[in-house]
Amino acid sequence: MNPELRVLAKRYAQALQEYVLGRGEAALQEACDLGRQALGDGVGVHDMAAIQHRALIRSLMRVRTREESSSTLRAASRFIVESLLPFEMSHRKSQEVNAALRESEERYRSVVDTARDIIYTLSADAKIMSMNPAFETVTGWSRTEWIGKDFLPLVHPDDRPRAAEIFQAVLKGQVPPIFELGVRAKSGFTIPGEFVATPLARDARVVGVLGVARDITDRKRAERALRHLNEALEEEVKRIAHALHDEAGQLLASVHIALADLAPTLPPPAREKMTEVVRSLKDCEDSLRDLSHELRPMVLENLGLMPALRNLAEKVARRNKLSITVSASGNNPARMPASIESAIYRSTQEALNNVVKHAGARRVRIRVRRGSRAVSCIVQDDGVGLSKPLRREESTGLGLIGIRERVGALGGSFRIASRPQKGATLLLIVPLQP
Ligand SMILES: Nc1ncnc2c1ncn2[C@@H]1O[C@H](COP(=O)(O)OP(=O)(O)OP(=O)(O)O)[C@@H](O)[C@H]1O
Ligand SMILES: [Mg+2]
């Protein structure tokens, strides 16, 4: 018996002897305290039994009569029960805790097992430690084919260097932003996956990676379809712009010529009227020209987004007696991919249409900011603001839906904020890399 146990045993024997000699409740309380202390010191039930055994023998050695012996035994048995109470309570508590733990683990298991996303863990040496059943449904591989193996071969070869880099970063304790990787399916196809990865820690040490991967095939397909649709729309708009410019323009030009021929043959009062008609015709021609240029902004194609936006702002401002300023900030003003320039241009165009139609504004600010990863554009007016928050299902207009789709097809996002009588602000963000 080690020295600490010996001290405990001595106190125990004394307390038992006092109880046997009739010290009553106070000695029983002492039994309970001793039990609690023993439990706290990590003394096991086995050692307690040994201590009790010794104490009982010592008490029995002092006994002289048969009555004394049976009363000592009775007292000792109560004393023993009392000193074991803390053990009993702790045992019950741990049973409850275990049951709660089991229940929570079962709940967690069922969430993981029924999840549609792939949930996996990787060890620090890049081996796959676990995967939920979704892995089989999504990729067609069976889990046993991969558990215990290196995870990198599951990633499309082009994405492997990036996957390895992110893996190392997570092992260092970082939580990277959501990322996309191609995953090799059993069929040989590559599945586009969206990933979230976090460090897996044990005792404050990173021992691996916990990740969730989502199959985004449908989203990618929809985005591609939208992009095609936008391109087709853009072609259609070009065709209409040409028709307006060339055909309607030519028709108007021939009306001009006919009028010019007619003018000398008219009496002076009618000639004056004719001059007015010619002026209106000229205005009509100008607006047609403006419109066809807005529809097919050659400036956008030839010079880029900022000159095209300035051009558009100038025309809309002139036509509607508005003040519109356009500013650019951020790095690298060079050209961006045509799809991005065109999406921002068309969205701004619709935002300006809305300002003219709904806002009753006097001033509009257009601000474009180009960052290293994304470009943002803000169109802010000082009009009446939105009468109520927009609900997609209620809106009958096509404008904002068009903006959402254009920007969404490029993986970007769009938001409109407004306060009554304080104007509306439209913000769109488009990533520069898909
Ligand atoms: N700048 C703005 N100021 C105030 N209200 C606005 C502004 N922009 C949009 N709205 C509100 O949002 C609604 C939806 O706009 P959206 O462009 O989708 O449709 P629309 O302009 O009514 O129709 P369409 O664009 O199809 O011609 C508008 O009807 C209007 O009530
Ligand atoms: Mg509109």
Structural description of this entry:
- It is a single chain.
- This protein is α+β, with helices and mostly antiparallel strands.
- The chain has four domains: 3-111, no CATH class; 115-215, PAS domain (Beta-Lactamase, 2-Layer Sandwich), CATH 3.30.450; 219-296; 304-434, Heat Shock Protein 90, CATH 3.30.565.
- It has twelve helices and ten strands.
- The strands form two sheets. Strands 2-1-5-4-3 form a five-stranded antiparallel beta sheet. Strands 6-7-8-10-9 form a five-stranded mixed beta sheet, with helices on one face.
- Helix 2 (25-40) packs across helix 4, helix 3 runs antiparallel to helix 4 and helix 11 (338-359) runs antiparallel to helix 12 (399-409).
- The longest helix has 49 residues, at 66-114.
- It is elongated, with a radius of gyration of 41 Å.
- The mean pLDDT is 89.
Please tell me the overall pLDDT: 89
* SSE-based structural type: alpha+beta
β-strand amount? 15-25%
* Coarse morphology: elongated
**SSE series:** HHHHEEHHEEEHHHHEHEEHEE
CATH level 1 class label of the largest domain: Alpha Beta
CATH superfamily of the largest domain: Histidine kinase-like ATPase, C-terminal domain
Termini separation: 72 Å
Please work out how many helical segments DSSP would assign.
12
Total number of β-strand segments?
A: 10
CATH topology of the largest domain: Heat Shock Protein 90
The set of bound ligands, ions and cofactors reads:
adenosine-5'-triphosphate, magnesium ion
User: Percent helix among the residues?
Assistant: 55-70%
How many strands, which pairing sense, and closed or not: the largest β-sheet? 5 strands, antiparallel
Rounded radius of gyration (Å):
41 Å
Low-pLDDT runs of 5+ residues are: none
Structurally, how many domains make up the residues? 4
CATH architecture annotation of the largest domain: 2-Layer Sandwich
